[in-house]
Design brief:
The complex is a heterotrimer of chains A (295), B (449) and C (308). Chain A is built from 18 helices and no strands. Chain A is mainly α and 295 residues long. Chain A is globular. In chain B, the strands form four sheets. Chain B has a five-stranded mixed β-sheet, with helices on both faces. In chain B, α3 links the parallel β1 and β2. With 449 residues, chain B is of the alpha/beta class. Chain C is mostly helical. In chain C, α2 crosses α12 and α4 crosses α7. The chains are: A mainly alpha (295), B alpha/beta (449), C mainly alpha (308). Chain B: This is Sugar ABC transporter substrate-binding protein. Chain B: Keywords: Signal. Chain B: InterPro entries: Bact_solute-bd_prot1 (IPR050490), SBP (IPR006059).
């Protein structure tokens, strides 16, 4: 219990106090020049590739080949070409599959996560096995999954991909939710029971509201994983109407004429929406990762 | 199903319309010659139906063109799905195997026909071809016909895109470096490439772009070009692998000779990288499909080498050898194994493989990337007028050509060869002979029962 | 106690029945999860096991029972053995690099003045970028025709030859690894940093009163406090690295030669390019064995550290 409470403190500290103003934290080591330099270096290492991508997105192929790093004469055509291609459609598809899948994942995972974490339903076997699908590369599973989608009549549709995303993230979601559920004081649930709520009502009216931040956190993580997924998307959505943005981007690499600038602009168009979501919801995202992944 | 519905997405309105009007003219012209009755019966049958076709992404232009044309003629809506060239066979197989059966027609690499047939992903069309003399099998370029159509004794495909490589050269770069003629032999080629790279690589200009990315259609093609030039074969007359022959070893060594002088780096040079360098005027030579010529003359493709290029046969071992074509890529029309629409699918592929359509595709703008599949389209007048050199080079397919092995496991065999070539060229193998001996052993396991 | 109306006259008192219905609810609650396990684990596992024991092509699985023939082929194939060895080395290399860099960065962040919201946001970005885009991006960086690395090398040492990371048999895997480390090290930073902030202040104060030096504090108080987190982060990183596919697919296609042919890529190629699902399934099982064997020790250490 102390352990989990600590994590909460930590997450709160991470999210608020420390970053607004520096209070004298007990036991906090003194800042050092070395540490500051290292942090600065890390930020540079993270940012330089991204800035380079932005830079390329404003260059023509000739400018790139001539070995300049910052375009003197920005070529905006890359962006307009990328915008007029299938990319925006792909971004929409990706967003729909990502968030649709994430919401479904939560619906499927929450009751199970609660029963497993609180009531040990399914015993050790279930809690031990639940993460097993995540451990291996999912490639060969494509054949059975395709058969499944065919039975449901969802091959080659965005709905089919959404369903697959919903399923593949259930194990991860249960695993991440576990830490949050354990943090809910048992007394609150007991109080609900004494008030006459059955387990379904308890889950719906007591547990779910308390888990709202956790659900957002895990939902965002699932959505990001979905948005970035490539392998299933290649095989489950071939038609232009349903292709997601990673598939479109990978396809651009085998085009018969190379256009780094347009690929870079398209990549950025793909990245911007999910960056926005992540930055807006970063409080949840960080808490989901830190509370869920390390328990 | 949410397929790309062509009639709703006319992104290339003007160009496609232009193409269609030419097509309409041609159709009008030939209906006069070869029976308007059949065309009408054709149209009545399937009005309002749909046909789903799966093709290579680089055939997208051709796909749009065909969809428009076929709808015009028959009222059938053609939905075109494109995937990267190396995924057609697996996507089609998964579609058929899972029972989704979305696709009716596809155009895979001809080498994969054997595996597709073995898995039931495509269906034989022998009877259909035999019952329809209009298909005029004898008009297909003979060296193309056999490998592109047959799996054992059954016909599974009709040739769509002939796809041989020719040697393109940048006349300006050659002139600057004092070469007044392109090379006739692979030795001369290596020499010219080395000279040009030495003179101009500091300015970003190289002797050649060599397709060397580890894919059968890329690195495999570069090797096959040399194997054709050195007079080698993939299989001997009895169908046994002959991939460790002296000719094959010479071919691999010829590839090695220019590896370090080529546009850096060959291992990363795929179609995009190579073509871009060519269009930018940064390489003197590129072995490429003959349709590169059409694109090189098209300012909308971003070509900066308009009128600055020439094309010739691929080099040989000796200057006096006859030029020999190498069927490096090449795509065939096939009918999906489980389609409910087999009749319509057959009619579509008959139409799409016809002289008229092939001739139109050869010179259509924007370029469709299609090469001749028939003698009659190869000899087409418009093609000859607009691209006489391309016509001449393509004519080399008439005198014998080198084709990849086909049949079951052929795809894997091509992949293994490609992997070993790449391993040798990146320094992971000790000698060319040893490398190809390994391939020979694998091929004997895969291709000989 | 709530008693569902649909259960009149059941045996036992209301309390017992309540427990019974509660358990029923729990069973219903876990049923979607169990279903998911069946669909995502059991069904593919049966498929993979069956495919591994039969001659199976992509379009026509389970043609005939071949026993251990696929395993013999796989075990005696240098390509497959090399791939599994490469995959294991890659996973450990990348996981160690990410964990070490991530931990150092987290500690630096902890001891830095500038760990503000901006830094936090920046450090989040790489793991949100789709791996396909990371691959494209590092492909640009390593491109021998005008890439960032090439341009910088040329600028500082004019006249030097071409340095093409991704077409060099030795360096290509490091190129992929660098992209991988770039993408996922921030996760380690985040986890370890949060653990550092979550240390119990009382213990640290007590240690300070005892006159522990900065290094001693770190070595004996801070490090043990976050060791569990570091190992957990290492574990997550290890498994992500074992599964790497997208980066290889985009950056090198397994080449040059077989120098970046990691297991996930080899499985994909066997099944979807060469149509040999039997071998692909066999490699998947072998990989499962390798992953299990190498992760069990790590897992046990994690558990011990957590229980302490």
């Amino acid at each position: 219990m102390t352990d989990t409470l600590n994590t909460t403190n930590a997450a709160q500290a991470f999210n608020s106090r420390r970053f607004r103003k520096r209070l004298p934290t007990p036991g906090k080591p003194r800042p050092s020049l070395l540490a500051n330099t290292w942090v600065l270096l890390s930020v540079i290492v993270v940012l330089v590739p991204l800035l380079y991508l932005i830079s390329i997105s404003f260059m023509t192929q000739g400018q790139i080949a001539s070995g300049i790093l910052v375009p003197t004469d920005p070529a905006f055509s890359n962006w307009s070409n990328a915008w007029d291609s299938a990319i925006p459609r792909g971004v929409l598809n990706s967003l729909m599959a990502a968030f649709g899948g994430a919401i479904l994942t939560l619906l499927l995972a929450l009751p199970g996560a609660w029963a497993i974490a609180r009531h040990r339903t399914g015993g050790k076997a279930l809690s031990g096995l639940i993460l097993s699908p995540w451990l291996l590369p999912p490639i060969v599973a494509i054949i059975p999954l395709l058969t499944l989608l065919r039975i449901l009549g969802l091959t080659n549709t965005l709905e089919g991909l959404t369903l697959v995303y919903a399923l593949i993230n259930v194990p991860v979601a249960i695993w991440l939710l576990d830490g949050f559920i354990r943090r809910i004081p048992v007394e609150i649930e007991e109080a609900g029971r004494i008030d006459g709520a059955n387990e379904g009502q308890l889950l719906l009216r007591v547990v779910t509201p308390m888990l709202a931040p956790a659900l957002i956190a895990v939902g965002v993580i699932a959505a990001i994983l979905n948005y970035n997924e490539f392998l299933f998307a290649t095989f489950l959505t071939q038609s232009q109407e349903s292709q997601t943005v990673p598939v479109l981007l990978a396809g651009m690499l085998s085009e018969r004429v190379q256009d780094f600038g347009r690929i870079a602009a398209s990549s950025l168009i793909a990245v911007i929406p999910i960056f926005t979501v992540a930055v807006l919801l970063q409080r949840y995202l960080i808490e989901g990762l830190t509370t869920g992944a390390v328990k | 199903m949410t397929q790309k519905n062509h009639s709703q997405t006319r992104t290339r309105g003007v160009a496609v319309t232009a193409g269609t009007s030419i097509l309409a003219l041609t159709l009008a012209a030939c209906s006069g010659a070869s029976g308007a009755v059949e065309g009408d019966a054709f149209a009545g049958d399937h009005e309002g139906q749909e046909l789903n076709i799966l093709i290579n992404a680089s055939h997208e232009g051709a796909g749009d063109w065909l969809a428009e044309g076929f709808e015009e003629e028959t009222g059938v809506v053609v939905n075109v799905t494109t995937v990267p060239y190396d995924e057609i066979a697996s996507q089609l197989t998964l579609d058929q195997q899972s029972g989704a059966n979305v696709y009716d027609v596809s155009a895979p690499w001809y080498v994969s026909l054997g595996d597709l047939a073995a898995d039931g992903s495509i269906q034989p069309i022998t009877e259909f071809v035999e019952e329809h003399p209009d298909i005029d099998v004898d008009d297909f370029i003979p060296t193309i016909w056999e490998p592109y159509a047959y799996v054992d004794e059954e016909i599974y495909g009709l040739p769509f895109d002939g796809d041989i490589h020719a040697l393109f050269y940048n006349t300006e770069i050659l002139e600057r470096n004092g070469f007044d003629a392109p090379p006739a032999t692979w030795d001369e080629y290596a020499e010219q490439v080395a000279t040009i790279t030495e003179n101009e690589s500091d300015d970003g200009v190289y002797g050649a772009a060599v397709f060397g990315e580890q894919s059968p259609l890329i690195l495999g093609a570069s090797f096959a070009n040399r194997l054709a030039g050195y007079g080698g074969e993939f299989l001997d007359e009895d169908g046994n692998p002959a991939i460790n022959s002296p000719e094959a070893v010479a071919s691999l060594e010829a590839l090695e000779d220019i590896w370090d002088d080529a546009l850096p780096t060959p291992a990363e040079t795929d179609f995009g990288a190579g073509n871009s360098a060519w269009f930018a005027g940064n390489v003197a030579f590129i072995e490429n499909w003959t349709d590169l010529g059409v694109r090189s003359q098209d300012p909308d493709s971003g070509s900066e080498v308009i009128d600055d290029w020439g094309v010739t046969y691929l080099p040989r071992a000796n200057a006096e050898d006859d030029p020999r074509a190498s069927l490096v890529a090449g795509f065939s029309w096939v009918v999906a194994g489980n389609t409910d629409n087999a009749d319509l699918a057959q009619q579509f592929i008959e139409w799409a493989a016809s002289t008229e359509v092939n001739s139109e595709l050869l010179t259509a703008l924007p370029p469709t990337g299609i090469d001749p599949n028939r003698i009659s389209s190869l000899e087409d007048e418009t093609y000859g007028e607009e691209f006489p050199e391309l016509q001449e080079v393509n004519a080399s397919t008439l005198h014998g050509a080198l084709a990849w092995p086909t049949g079951q496991n052929a795809t894997e065999a091509a992949q293994i060869l490609t992997d070993e070539l790449a391993a040798y060229l990146s320094g992971q193998r000790s000698s060319a002979q040893e490398t190809l001996d390994t391939v020979q052993a694998e091929w004997e396991r895969l291709l000989v029962d | 106690m709530a008693v569902p109306s649909g259960h009149p006259g059941g045996s036992g008192g209301p309390r017992r029945r309540g427990r019974f219905t509660a358990r029923l609810y729990h069973r219903i609650f876990i049923s979607p999860s169990v279903l998911v396990l069946l669909v995502l684990a059991a069904y593919p596992l049966v498929f993979i096991a069956s495919a591994a024991l039969t001659r199976s092509s992509l379009g026509n699985p389970f043609q005939e029972f071949v026993g251990a023939a696929n395993f013999q082929t796989a075990v005696s194939s240098p390509a497959i053995r090399d791939s599994l060895a490469l995959g294991t080395g890659y996973a450990f290399g990348v996981a160690v690099a990410s964990t070490a860099l991530g931990t150092v960065t987290a500690v630096a962040l902890w001891r830095s003045l500038h760990a503000g919201a901006f830094v936090r946001t920046v450090l989040l970005l790489p793991m949100i970028v789709p791996p396909v885009v990371v691959g494209i991006l590092f492909g640009f960086i390593f491109s021998p025709s005008g890439g960032l690395l090439h341009t910088l090398i040329r600028r500082f040492t004019p006249g030097s030859g071409t340095f093409a990371v991704l077409s060099d048999t030795t360096w290509a895997i490091f190129g992929v690894a660098l992209a991988d480390v770039w993408e996922w090290t921030p996760l380690v930073v985040l986890l370890v940093f949060t653990a550092l902030l979550g240390q119990q202040p009382e213990i640290i104060e007590a240690a300070q009163l005892d006159g522990a030096s900065g290094y001693q504090m770190f070595r004996h108080i801070t490090l043990p406090a976050v060791a569990g987190t570091i190992i957990a982060a290492f574990m997550i990183r290890l498994i992500l690295a074992f599964k790497v596919f997208d980066l290889v697919y985009v950056m090198t296609s397994g080449g040059p030669g077989s120098s970046t042919q990691v297991p996930a890529f080899l499985i994909w190629r066997s099944a979807l390019q060469n149509f040999d699902v039997g071998i692909a399934a066999t490699i998947t099982l072998l990989l499962a064995i390798v992953v299990t064997v190498v992760t069990i020790p790590v897992f046990l250490i994690t558990k011990r550290l957590r229980d302490d």
